[in-house]
């Protein structure tokens, strides 16, 4: 296995601090890299479905020079608490709680996949909290789409140790990922329980509809939105990405990252950093 590059090791060495707040009665975990830099504008990163804030460990630290940088775990994921039931607005509530607790609103927010879709909802619901939304390869249902059928799957059984769990870690959808990066995601996706090691997400989320179906929501967005499409994505086609951008009155021209797959921070991490820097430069 090849060794992790120096830039990756540097990013993981940057101090990351945990915080907690509550969203609609549920404890929500968020992290900061430089919360003390209150003179800098706020920047928040939101992860994808069944992910967690560690997906940004090797991306977020590159932006602390100009921004006060945070990331968070959606309820039911990472170190955030489970909910009795999950609705679309549950995750909008998470956004609102973290942005207010971190005192960074109105903030620039970067959301990937599920996180980007929930970010669009937050833009329409709490526009005063968002200064600019950067949406990374996020699916959104458009007029005429049928909602996907939710597959009922049993909860995964606990693993006897971390190594066993890491062997079963998979990306959905699957794509190329360097072993050292895959190991980081796999190890941070597990937690120890009384019965063994299990994934850091509520099994009930597997039975929750994750596709937003409010057809008029995109047209109600009034805050600036930049949509970044991964050229090789199997989640969002180029046609859908263009239609999403066309439906948002405040959206800028579609940006496409050549050769990138859906998890663009995994197959092109430094290219994503460069792209985000270009987009964020006029906002710092």
Automatic annotation (TrEMBL):
Residues 43-274 form the AB hydrolase-1 domain. One of its GO terms (molecular function) is 2-(acetamidomethylene)succinate hydrolase activity. Coiled coil: none annotated. The keyword Hydrolase applies. SUPFAM superfamilies: alpha/beta-Hydrolases (SSF53474). Its EC number is 3.5.1.29. Keywords: Hydrolase. It is an enzyme of class 3 (hydrolase). InterPro entries: AB_hydrolase_1 (IPR000073), AB_hydrolase_fold (IPR029058), AB_hydrolase_sf (IPR050266). GO terms for cellular component: membrane. This is 2-(Acetamidomethylene)succinate hydrolase. It comes from Paraburkholderia rhynchosiae.
């Amino acid at each position: 296995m090849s060794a992790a590059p120096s830039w990756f090791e540097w990013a993981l060495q940057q101090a990351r601090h945990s915080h907690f707040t509550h969203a609609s009665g549920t404890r929500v975990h968020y992290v900061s890299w430089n919360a003390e830099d209150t003179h800098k504008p706020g920047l928040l990163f939101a992860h994808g479905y069944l992910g967690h804030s560690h997906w940004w460990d090797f991306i977020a630290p590159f932006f602390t020079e100009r921004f006060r940088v945070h990331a968070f775990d959606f309820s039911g994921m990472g170190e955030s608490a489970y909910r009795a039931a999950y609705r679309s607005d549950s995750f909008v509530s998470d956004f609102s709680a973290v942005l207010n607790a971190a005192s960074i609103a109105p903030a620039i927010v970067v959301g990937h996949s599920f996180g980007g879709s929930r970010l669009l909802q937050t833009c329409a619901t709490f526009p005063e909290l968002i200064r600019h939304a950067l949406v990374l390869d996020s699916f959104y249902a458009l007029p005429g789409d049928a909602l996907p059928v939710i597959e009922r799957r049993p909860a995964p059984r606990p693993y006897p140790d971390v190594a066993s769990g890491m062997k079963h870690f998979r990306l959905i959808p699957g794509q190329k990922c360097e072993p050292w990066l895959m190991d980081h995601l796999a190890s941070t996706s597990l937690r120890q329980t009384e019965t063994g090691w299990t994934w850091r997400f509520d099994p009930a989320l597997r039975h929750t509809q994750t596709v937003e179906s409010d057809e008029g929501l995109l047209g109600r967005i009034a805050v600036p939105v930049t949509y970044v499409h991964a050229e090789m994505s199997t989640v969002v086609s180029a046609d859908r990405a263009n239609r999403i951008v066309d439906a948002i009155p405040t959206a800028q021209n579609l940006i496409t990252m050549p050769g990138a797959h859906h998890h663009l921070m995994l197959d092109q991490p430094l290219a994503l950093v460069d792209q985000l820097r270009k987009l964020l430069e006029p906002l710092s």
